[in-house]
Amino acid sequence: MPNHRPLRLSRRQIIRSILATTAFGAVTKLNTGCAPSSNSSDTSSANGSGNVAVGFIYVGPKDDFGYNQAHAEGAQAMATVPGVKIIEQASVPETAAVLETMRSMIEIDGATVLFPTSFGYFDPYILELAVEFPDVQFFHAGGLYQEEVHPDNVGSYFGYIDEAQYIAGIVAGHMSQTSKLGFVAAKPIPQVLRNINSFTLGAKSVNPEITTQVIFTGDWALPVKEAEATNSLADQGIDVVTCHVDSPKVVMETAEKRDVFSSGYHANQAPLAPKGYLTGAEWDWASTYTSLGKAFVQGKTLMNGGIDHVLRGGLAEKFCKLSPYGSAVNDAAKADAEAAKAKLLKGGLVIYQGELKDNKGNVILAAGEKYEQQNLALESMDWLIEGVKGNIDG
Amino acid sequence: MAAESLGLWGIPLGILAGTLRGSAPFLFVSLGECLTEKSGKINLGLEGVLLMGAMSAYGVSYLSQDLVGDFWAPWLGVLAAGFSGMALGTIHGWVAQQPRVNDVATGIAMITLGSGLAFFFGKPFIQPQAPQLMTFDWGAWSSSPQVQAALKVSPLFLLGVAIAPLLYAFFRSTRWGLSIRAVGDSPQAARAMGISIFKVRLFSIMAGSFLAGIGGACLSLYYPGVWTERISSGQGLMAVALVIFAQWNPIQCLWASLLFGGAQAIGPTFQSVGIDSYYYLFNAAPYILTLIIMIITCSPQRTLSGSPGALGKSDHT
């Protein structure tokens, strides 16, 4: 007998829908990879000494052998400062998702300082929330901050990691037998171009014949494209490969499989390429983050002038460092690299000095001119120097 | 260590190598989806299955290397990938066949579930290196290291190439294949023949997900050979679109997968030889290809030939 009873839910249907809702909830929870390091969420006031909640947001996983791992290691160092409590969230895309993450860190976890570490978080997401929450400090890793234009509670910090790239370039220039280096890059933005240029200048300082072939993959994490790019570089007789992508793991492993040398980036990738790893340019955020953490506890902020809006530093200020030399590196390369490093540490070496031409023949710096490391012109770089094969307008 | 430059010869070689290296995941997922859709249900969740397969293959290979050695560990990983895919497929196969449940919606839920589980369980495997699958070195005859590298062929790729005609023959000339086609084309007729629609569809979805899981193993154990959360970059979804383009024919799935695998290599290869304009366009080649194919094959005047009759229809059985 057919029984049509509208609006009557059977017990089975109710159980089913409860299960479905739970499953959905569980999945969204898993998917965001939210990992608060502390559960207490007492909202302390921003300016007093005592507990400061600091939020860190990463674009990928925290142990990716790359950009995010470098920041996460720094965050752990900051967490050891008494009075600092850190909140972390990994794998947040550069979309409106980061707005939600920042908002919930501020409103639910009581964060008064945020470190949204990925480049693409800045505009428009950080700028939007910075206006909405004028008491919260936002620190962005990158050169997008402009004084006078952007809100007072936004600061910018970044390391002159191209100093380390310059030295890695010297080692690469020594070790390359074909005088051809390869660079797997994500996007043609100023930081990436600066690394490419400094790496090439370092290599050219020991071997003027050197060229660097660049391949832009188009995004920060595209494992298949990165492997494909490394393979096609090796096909062209390139024998040292380095990269600027979020996780250099694929590039290093592929280079090792193809028997070419590799030079690391972001973190130490030596275990991934025991034969071919030469050296690498690594971040050293622990010291920067620790001193910032101490400043927060003392009540210093961007708004009261206790913290500079633009924090920059290189090898000397411990913003970056070099990986230990790999077993393949010969003594001549080590000697030249150490000499350049000593000069950089003393401030006696300017990487960008005339005469310097871009790879289209335009003069960037006339003879006798130079860009000191702090020069903001370097942070809006839109050229590739002579010797780099590649094109920044896609 | 030093190798001669190939110059412009790098383009065909690079695309050929990219095809051999990169098409296996497309191939396995599209064959799996082809099998699933032939039975009249669609499984969009294969993107999640692909990630789950990649993660479990990598994890099992890493964890079992001390037990079974570096040669067999990745093969255990491949099996694990297949079975983890099958487990997800079982959920989809059961849920999607409940009354008034839409299989497209379930599929999207399965993408979230599969990727969520893979990301959750995969966290400890992002950093370590797992033993990789062996490859056949067909390039040993050549003195050029480029050719040698290009002709390192994965046994999984060969397996996929072998499965395509087998699946074709299975649909064409076996009783089981006929049952699947009958269920997919006309469930009522199949029911009249005494075939259990539920069981046939569940089997097809499970077997299809098994194949897609192996596709994930290709990603993490062969090329590019790592486990990261961004490993699939949408390949699972593209492979589903590819089945429509291949008109539900396993042999054409093979050609389509080769095309898509090769298209991934276009952007990097062109830049490496100095053709460096329009690289965003070249990098987008697979997606543009999908669009063009969809426009060519989808005409409002006619339905797609080869489309299973019951696909996308809700059946009140």
In CATH terms, what is the architecture of chain B? Orthogonal Bundle
Rg value of chain B: 20 Å
Amino- and carboxy-terminal Cα gap of chain A: 69 Å
Beta percentage of chain B is under 5%
User: Under the CATH scheme, which class of the largest domain in chain A?
Assistant: Alpha Beta
Largest sheet of chain A: 7 strands, mixed
Radius of gyration of chain A: 24 Å
Number of strands of chain A: 18
| Strand order in the largest sheet of chain A | 1-3-2-4-5-6-12
Number of helices of chain B: 12
Which term fits the overall shape of chain A?
globular
What does this structure look like?
- The complex is a heterodimer of chains A (394) and B (317).
- Chain A is of the alpha/beta class and 394 residues long.
- Chain A has 10 helices and 18 strands.
- In chain A, the strands form 4 sheets. Chain A has a 7-stranded mixed beta sheet with strand order 1-3-2-4-5-6-12, with helices on both faces. In chain A, strands 13-11-10-9-7-8-18 form a 7-stranded mixed beta sheet, with helices on both faces.
- In chain A, helix 2 packs parallel to helix 9.
- The longest helix of chain A is centred in the N-terminal third of the chain and has 22 residues.
- The termini of chain A are far apart.
- About 5% of the residues of chain A have low confidence.
- Chain B is mainly alpha-helical.
- Chain B has one domain: ABC transporter involved in vitamin B12 uptake, BtuC (Orthogonal Bundle).
- In chain B, 69% of the residues lie in helices and 1% in strands.
- In chain B, strands 1-2 form a two-stranded antiparallel ribbon.
- In chain B, helix 1 runs parallel beside helix 5 and helix 9 packs parallel to helix 12.
- At the A-B interface, helix 1, strand 8, helix 7 and helix 8 of A face helix 1, helix 3, helix 4, helix 10 and helix 11 of B.
